[in-house]
UniProtKB/TrEMBL annotation:
Family membership: Belongs to the glycosyltransferase 20 family.
Pfam families: Glyco_transf_20
CDD domains recorded: GT20_TPS
Gene3D superfamilies: Glycogen Phosphorylase B (3.40.50.2000)
InterPro entries for this protein: Glyco_trans_20
Protein name in the entry: Trehalose-6-phosphate synthase
Superkingdom in the source lineage: Bacteria
Chain ranges passing through the membrane: none
Length: 535
């Protein structure tokens, strides 16, 4: 039954595949009332979790999800079809949907992670992949059922006129389905990934491509992390659906945003874009016009909200004793007087970890002066290991790291310190220690590591950053920007970063930290609610 404290339903609803809690099997405590071993709950991190806390405990809010954090199989089995215990969620009302495991697997692994993720990150090796056949059709039908389950639950939970924030590529059909069920709701969809350009997006079967776009256009707003992804989405709507996209100069709008001074000259436009990615829609309009999509009599506004790092949380958390302990252990492992190049990623195909290692190898080949004087700390945390291609990639990361160590290592110097066990406290310790951060994804919606390191770094850290990361729109001026495929150029940038004078490094780091924290999670979340309210 739906949660309904006042008989009126929830005012704010969040829907995402993964909910804001993770569970691990308790270590030997007394069994729970059901006689099963106890589960230990941990509240998830990330922008949405801290963002939602901005609306305060009194707002009637509910979070609808179909999966929980890592280590969750047992917890998912027990929680399916229920509300989680508020004691586990920090008081948050979280409803787990009851989705059949085979439907979930087809929707999450086979469509969301193997098709939609691949399209938006342009990961296919097209001579062989993708192949859209009858198996794909079955899986797509499961993806539709999974989206429909979300739409039904949201329709049940929502108060009249409530705000519904639907997240990511797992749930692109939800806005359209929900609009059918509840025309009164204000529905927004947020893409945390890049959006594919039309030529690549059209790899999808025509009807599926159209369904994806129609699904999102069922909402009042569609929002993205940078203007680049918003533009790509608008272009797909034009090319695939034949929708009308209005790129409205600010002066012609209906006053929904502050009128902006006229922007003249390249620098002024750049400044406007910088403002835009900090969440100012008025400046976005000045930089390139508001984006409004009109299709089949409906209007959907396109928004840009560049999620920033949570400075307050990071500064406080990174000074905790468990982080200090790990910092000491890392220092001991690296050895005194050595510089560090740090990367922290999930072993995700889009993160480009292997080319990062090859660039480090090239640095050692070309600049023997770094032998014994630099360590590449590479944290590559397992991700989506149900998929063979992810497991193979993880193995390749390991193989290349070992090969570098075998080629260049000496009894007292291990060039690559590879860690694969996820440990947030150790990631923060590495951020504190970093002389150089390497963030070189093939394509990335934003990349929060690029934003977190400058906030936590102690000595000031030089950032080598892929131009294909959304974060580059905000951090590009003070980072060393690279083409992620160009290993040679990445090696050069690593060298440049290592020899950067300390004063310059500290100054750039200071500016990076300012830009990185311009729109912290709570403001990012509220900006979306306000925008949904405004139009
Ligand atoms: C990354 C992406 C998000 C996505 C999430 C899903 O964090 O940036 O867009 O929602 O992965 O991760 P999962 O582990 O649930 O597949």
């Amino acid at each position: 039954m739906a949660f309904d404290p006042s008989g009126a339903g929830a005012r704010v609803l969040v829907a995402s595949n993964r909910g804001p809690v993770s569970y691990t099997l308790g270590d030997g405590g007394p069994p729970g009332p059901d006689g099963l071993p106890p589960l230990t709950a941990r509240r998830g991190g990330g922008g949405l979790v801290s963002g939602l806390s901005a609306i305060g405990p009194d707002a009637d809010a509910v979070w609808v999800c179909a999966a929980l954090g890592e280590g969750d199989r047992e917890a998912v089995r027990r929680a399916r079809g229920r509300y989680l215990d508020p004691a586990d969620t920090g008081g948050q009302r979280v409803r787990m949907l009851d989705i059949a495991p085979e439907t979930f697997t087809a929707a999450y692994n086979d469509i969301a992670n193997s098709v939609l993720w691949f399209v938006h990150h342009m990961l296919y090796q097209t001579p062989l992949d993708p192949v859209f056949d009858d198996r794909f059709r079955d899986r797509w039908a499961a993806y539709e059922r999974y989206n429909a389950a979300f739409a039904d639950a949201l329709a049940q939970e929502a108060a009249e006129g409530a705000f519904v924030l639907v997240q990511d590529y797992h749930l692109v059909l939800v806005p359209g389905m929900l609009r059918e069920l509840r025309p009164d709701l204000r529905i927004g969809h947020f893409s945390h990934t890049p959006w594919a350009p039309p030529d690549y997006f059209r790899l999808l079967p025509d009807d599926v491509a159209a369904q994806v776009l129609r699904g999102i256009l069922g909402g009042n707003r569609a929002a993205f992390l940078t203007r680049r992804w918003a533009d790509a989405f608008a272009e797909c709507c034009e090319r695939v659906l034949g929708a009308t996209v209005r790129r409205v100069p600010e002066q012609e709008t209906d006053g929904a945003a502050e009128p902006d001074a006229e922007v003249q000259g390249a620098e002024a436009v750049r400044e406007a874009i910088r403002e835009a990615v900090r969440g100012s829609e008025a400046a976005a309009a000045a930089a390139g016009g508001r984006l409004i999509v009109e299709f089949e009599g409906r209007t959907t506004r396109i928004g840009v909200h560049g999620l920033g790092a949570d400075a307050e949380f990071l500064r406080q958390r990174s000074r905790q004793p468990d982080v200090d302990e790990r910092l000491a252990a890392l220092r001991a492992q690296i050895g005194a007087g050595r510089k560090t190049i740090v990367r922290v990623d999930r072993t995700e195909l889009s993160k480009n970890i292997v080319r990062g290692l090859l660039a480090f190898r090239r640095l050692l080949e070309q600049h023997p002066q770094w032998h014994g004087r630099v360590v590449h700390i590479a944290f590559a945390y397992p991700s989506r290991q149900d998929l063979a291609v992810y497991r193979e990639y993880t193995e390749e990361v390991r193989r290349v790291a070992e090969e570098i160590n075998a080629t260049f290592g000496t009894p007292d110097w291990e060039p690559v310190a590879l860690h694969v066990k996820d440990d947030f406290a150790r990631s923060l310790a590495a951020y504190r220690l970093a002389d150089v951060a390497l963030v070189n994804p093939i394509r990335d919606g934003m990349n929060l590591v690029a934003k977190e390191v400058p906030v936590v770094s102690e000595a000031g850290c030089a950032l080598v950053l892929s131009r294909e990361a959304g974060a580059c729109a905000e951090l590009g001026e003070d980072a060393l920007v690279v083409n992620p495929y160009d290993v040679e150029a990445t090696a050069r940038a690593l060298h440049e970063a290592l020899v950067m004078p300390e004063g310059e490094r500290a100054e750039r780091n200071r500016r990076l930290a300012t830009a990185a924290t311009a729109l912290p999670p709570r403001d990012w979340f509220l900006a979306q609610l306000r925008a949904l309210d405004a139009g």
